[in-house]
Amino acid sequence: MGKRILDIVLSSAILFIFSPVIIICLIAIYGQDRQWPLYSPLRVGKNGVPFRMHKLRTMVVGADKSKIDTTGLNDSRITGLGHLLRRYKLDELPQLWNILRGQMSLVGPRPQIDREVKLYTEMEKGLLAVRPGITDFSSIVFSDLGEIVASAPDPNIAYNQLVRPWKSRLGLFYIAHSSVPLDIALITLTAIAIISKRRAFAGIVSLLTKLNADPELIEVCKRNKPLVPTAPLGSNEIVTSR
Fold it and tell me: Which domain holds residue 8?
């Protein structure tokens, strides 16, 4: 109950404060190409129920037809304004409406498309036990996802090899330790990450250490070493196709 109250109160306040910014962004996006400024793809929510997740459109119209679901920093589908919106996470603001509707939470595992969820191992399916969120541990630790997969021949495979194994672990760790104080800490660190990723990483490491997380997971979250291909949670095989 406390988590839902936090979601409603904070998302309402943020939506009210940033409503002028959202309106300006909508007008600017429409002004680029005279196309609908929102992007509302289907995502898999709690208990596997699909829903429309709303975002400010940062790509050209029809970009999702390529079936490239993981976006690299140098992806030509991203518009000039889109890079700016992504840099400051402004494209995520419309998801506050999803929160008010009860489809999402401020903090929780990020919602995935059906193609990704179908790849889940039995252990990873535990991520569907809660409402997905706008931010969580992995959203901060891998906030530079575009840079991680930028030079990869196949961004989707790179995501599944380098990020998904740890993202799933962090998501399940969050579910096991979910609390209002933890949500507030993660929301604060999300804001800090926009200004300083290193300070945000240090904050995540501190939180995980206090919660007695696995040392290997903590080490990855320091982000001072290159990510290496790793098998998804609950599997012994590294993903090589999708």
Answer: 2-221
* d(C-alpha 45, C-alpha 66), whole Å: 23
> Does residue 99 fall inside a structural domain?
yes
Q: What is the mean pLDDT of residues 127-147?
A: 96
Burial call 87-112: b when 16+ CB within 10 Å, e when fewer: eebbbbbbbbebbeeebbbbbbbbbb
Per-residue tokens: 74: 């140098």
Structure token digits, residue 152: 């990869």
Single out the residue of 160, 2, 195, 178 nearest to residue 88, CA to CA.
Answer: 195
* Nearest residue to 9 (alpha-carbon basis) of 109, 111, 96: 96
In a domain? residue 75 = yes
- Burial class of residue 2 in the structure, from the number of CB atoms within 10 Å of its CB (0-12 exposed, 13-18 middle, 19+ buried): exposed
Task: Tell me if 236 is assigned to some domain.
Answer: no
Structure tokens, 230: 């790793």
Using a cut of 0.85, tell me whether the model's pTM lies above it. yes
Alpha helices per DSSP H over 34-144: 80-87, 95-100, 114-117, 137-141
Q: Is residue 201 part of a domain?
A: yes
Q: Which two tokens mark 215?
A: 């040392």
Per-residue pLDDT at 65: 75
The number of domains in the chain is: 1
